[in-house]
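Field: COMPLEX_INPUT
Field: COMPONENT_COUNT = two
Field: RESIDUE_TOTAL = 510
Field: MODE = joint
Values follow.
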Amino acid sequence: MNRIRHIPSMSRSTSVIGRDRGLQARMLLTMFLLGLLYVVFMGVLFAAGAGFGLIVAFAAGLLLVQYFAADKLALASVGAKEVTPQEAPELHGMIDRLCVQADLPKPRVAMMQSEMPNAFALGRSPKHATVCATTAIVDLLTPAELEGVMAHELSHVANRDVAIMTLASFFASLASMIVQFSFFFGGGSSGGDSDDDGPGIFAVIVVSMMVYAISFFLMQALSRYREYAADRGAAILTGRPSALASALMKLGGEMQHIPKQDMRSAEMNAFYIFPVGTKDSFMSLFSTHPPMDKRIAALARMESELQGTAGRAVPVTV
Amino acid sequence: MGLFDAIIGRRKIAGPAPDRLFAITTAYITLETEHQISTRGVAAIVFQPLATGDFERIAADMEDVLRGTGADSGSTIETSEDSFGYRWMIVRDPDVEDLAVGINAVSDQLAIDGYADRLLCAVFAFQDAAGAPIYFIYNYKRGTWYPFSPAGDAAAQERATERELRLRAVIGADLPIEPELDRWFPLWGIPI
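Field: COMPLEX_OUTPUT
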């Protein structure tokens, strides 16, 4: 027993599971790099001239639509429907308790008829959030495991991951839009007639491509960090890291037997508990979720922290 | 939880808000004398047990302490677990003040041992003149109370919303009532 007991006045800010400063530092660094990239990109666009102002305004309009309507569109497009407490009493009861623990307002609860065991969270803020579980995941997992998964989704809600990733993707979609527009309209007008001082259209296209490529990798990294953070949040919320680890193992095993369905046909900013169809991702750089074994190893470290054996636990090396 | 914490994904569970548990002891006088709402002589504190040796030891100690103080006041104690894995420590005593003292002893002990963030709520059971069940639920995270009154049979999971809103109106001056109605979380299958 090496956990230090605290007097009540101090115990308010302590938690049994500590925080992961390394994770927070990596997350901040990634966000800083993304921001830096975007500032440079905006600079290039402004230097290139007013023609791009229109594209920026258009992209901003799309972003607003996505920000305010994406959750409803996404829910409708995957065929999920909201369930009342009468229709899903256990799920609602579980989420009620987690919301009290997390001091969150109650999100809308939705269920989706699907053979694929999965769960996701949508919505730009805790007040506009929806958490959704598929029928398969409710059948597959034990209540404690399901609680871990729902706590993971609620952590996404509390961390405002949908809003953050939507904002982070704004400039990436702007860059890709510029490249596409340029292929349609820019090609014909090229010539030696450029008498302005700024960079020409060609330079903007090259910069846009580069911005898109770099921001893609940064965003995937950011997304992976947010998954770790949500796992940690779930462990803190439920006090049962091993239950979530066990759920992840079950889902990992299950995913390999189930045919891939095109659940992402609709472009949506959803936070799945488990990525769809990235089982054999050959390069982790391309994936939005960290590899399963690393997530389970991180949860195992939290469990030893919880059990007060962090110092003398067998190091988990996966 | 500030916005910065949300942005960098730092989670910690809120500890308890300033304690307003004892507001029930004065509110009860109003309820009983003016609104014919009487105690059913039972209250419970609900928390999330951790599956660690340390926590189990503390929980056992806590029950002993409670039995010790209960022997003086005549309260009895029992423990049960619900289907969601939360533990209910149930205190029975005809006096609401003694109930609040018992509940407070448990939450204090958890706070001393550094587990205050595991507290979910406290529940006090009452009934109106016609015998309809009324619960007042104390949310430790927010330091607020709200009424919960199930209607009909338990399986239907219907709330007597009108009665709850009326209760808020009559007791709002004495009891700090949760202002956000969407945080009046129901607890189905309350074992008291």
